[in-house]
Amino acid sequence: MTSLKNIAFDRLVFAGGLVLGLQWLAAVGCAPADSVNGGKGGASAGSAGSSGATGAAGTSSAGSAGTTGGGATSGSAGTTGGGATSGSAGTTGSGATTGGGGTSATTNTDPATFAYKFNAGLEGWTLNNYADTGRINLADPARAASPAPTLTLDAAVGNPDAGSLKATAHFSDWKQYIDAVINVSPPKMLTGRVLRARVRLTSGTFTGGVQIHAGTGSSYRFAAGTWTTMTVGNWIELAIDLNAAKAADAMFDPSAVVQIGVKFDTGGDGLTQQFGGAIDAIFQIDTVSDGVVGGTLPPAVNYTFDTDAQSWTLNNYDNTSRKNLGGPNSPTTPTLAWDGAAGMPSPGSLKLAVTYSAYAQYVDPALNLSSLDLTGKVLHAYVMLDSGFFLGGVQLHAGSGPNYIYASSPFTPFGAEDAWDGALEGFHRLEPPKGWFWADPFPIQVDGRNYIFFEELPLGAAKAHISVVEVDRDGRASEPMMVLERDYHLSYPFLVEEDGQLYMIPETAGNGTVEVYRCEEFPARWKLERVLLRDVRCVDATLHRLGERWWMFVNTAVAGGEFNEELHLYSSPSLLGDWQPHRKNPVKCDVRGARPAGSLFWNGNRLFRPGQICTPLYGSGITVNRITRLTLDEYQEEEDHRIEPREAGTLGIHTFNRAGDLTVTDAFERRSRF
Fold it and tell me: What is residue 187's DSSP assignment?
């Protein structure tokens, strides 16, 4: 935060500064990302075809499940082929009540808005002929596969009615594939939709698997559905939830789908044994759509809870890494009961009531089965947060085999990020000494303890330094301790963790740099690790990682300008890598919300960026902007809501951050300096 003229600030409302204020939510936040391993997706993404050429598919290695836990909440399986990694499995909330609807191994009933039914022709579908360097595309002309794969119309065979694509291939080794695709022009708007396809192995002993996939946008962002094995003669349904794909990779854009495909791959990643004999396989593809067409494939199981709990109970596994509140020695007693009134799509559901009190806690309604073949099926469940404030998330999971091999869906938040309106009621207030100035609070939770880093400007000082306080749940704070001081002004101590290291990126505009410091001994020792940008006048650098790329949001003052107007973007493949400016810089020019006001955050699958309202006064309020487009070529955001002062005498609210269940902000009031 740069200097402010003619205003003396009161206190920090770690939730409000130059009242610092803090607030504890009724819930606790998600577990740290490194506490549970997410799954690993495919090795590479596909590229777009040019001039009508077919784009490349991503690799088809199946996502691996996260850490197992005998039924405990765990890391999610990676998005297969898309290279994305799903998040961690922390669960949070206080007194939260979750209602569960039916659970089934089938598709849902959303009607399709389009469908390729292949009743009379190929409808534009062809074999992808991309020259893949990581795997062998049998349709690549340079491979000269013999016999060459084919894609033809089969008018006699189909599901649900006659007519389908017939694909043939001669596989002779691992990591070989064929990929039936259609390039979509103009792009399809499929936000909120689920892509589906019906496939069958008609003949051949095919030991590999199949995936449905999609590519979006001009940069061809790739995502794929679950890797699914096949048995001869059985139609199976493939699916990919495009919103879930966007949640795993914010650059994946379901509003602009440019390619849809179905890929058959022999797999073999990580295997050392030989492939064995060659395979001649025939596949059928039918009814590629964004919903249900005709009859649905019969479910293997369907728990609708219409009349009772259908033998579902709370998992009581004694997890050693996370606390199962349904297990032994639990500090609380969650309940799982049948609710005959509420349900989806019909009345009747499971009702779960639980009180959370710390990180790494979970409950897990489950059903142990003697045996059930779900090959080729997609598990679905309806869930709802009925009451309580819950910042955690939910996963659908399954365990298979005698050794209980575990896999789960992506960790999905309930979207409980309330639209705080700026009211400071319920916040604890932390006040600096008279004449001192505190601002820019950034909270962090380490080993169950809560700390807040902030800018501290002593009375009469020409420059500020970075200090830290420890706070408890009653709002009591330790004495501030200075942790970083330079020969130039420091403020806005943005915190970020990467590869097990904690880093701080304070504002260092007075030195013409953007600098990153690594924590050597928490919380007091910090060492300059790298200068990210030089010869720049940048303030309030705010970093966020999306997929495999880091983004830096920062306001820059060009010659003759000021810091509050222009938002610039930089990106890098790594936190400590080479940062390059966005091609459209400045991406926003608006004193009413360009300048960063805290860390970016997710609400469900929507990404938000707080920005400072710097009119009529610097730090007058915060605008919460929803990011709708973020690529190397484009950036778009739109205002979702505003956070503005509600109490008399409060002149502004300037920064907003959260760490778990701790919310911090800084507000300022006019007061006597002495």
Answer: E
